[in-house]
Amino acid sequence: MAVIGDKNIKELVGVVTSAKNDKTRTVTVETVKMHPLYKKRFKTTKKYYIHDENNESQLGDTVKIRQSRPLSKLKRWTLVTITKQAVQVAA
Questions:
Q1: 82: closest CA among 37, 44, 50?
Q2: Domain assignment present for 68
């Protein structure tokens, strides 16, 4: 969580899975949870639609995202930084 002013703003790290739309990216965030009864850990994934104003991120990049005000019907997150660039293979 990031503290901005007097608010605790959520921040997550995920991988860009779709970069087809203009100024919008789909980011998949993977978390590890523990089952309440059996105490076994398992992975869960969730997709977030993020706002990328300058179309900086590309498919496969690892990015840090921050929760923001509603920007459209589904977009509630914005791009903070690109932490790791994806390896681009020339075809």
A1: 50
A2: yes
**Could you tell me the two tokens for 1?**
């969580």
Query: Which pLDDT score, from 0 to 100, does residue 31 have?
Result: 95
Which pTM was predicted?
0.85
Q: Give the CA angle between residues 86, 89, 90 to the nearest 5°.
A: 140
Mean pLDDT of all residues belonging to the chain: 92
| Total domains in the fold of the chain | 1
Which residues in 1-91 belong to E strands, given as ranges?
2-4, 7-9, 11-18, 24-34, 41-51, 62-67, 77-84
Quick check: is 20 in a domain?
Answer: yes
Angle at 25 between CA 19 and CA 58, to 5 degrees: 45
Per the structure, the complete domain to which residue 12 belongs is given by 2-84
Q: What CATH number does residue 9 fall under?
A: 2.40.50.140
Q: Are the C-beta atoms of 27 and 50 separated by less than 8 Å?
A: yes
Surface-to-core class of residue 50, CB atoms within 10 Å of its CB (0-12 exposed, 13-18 middle, 19+ buried)? buried
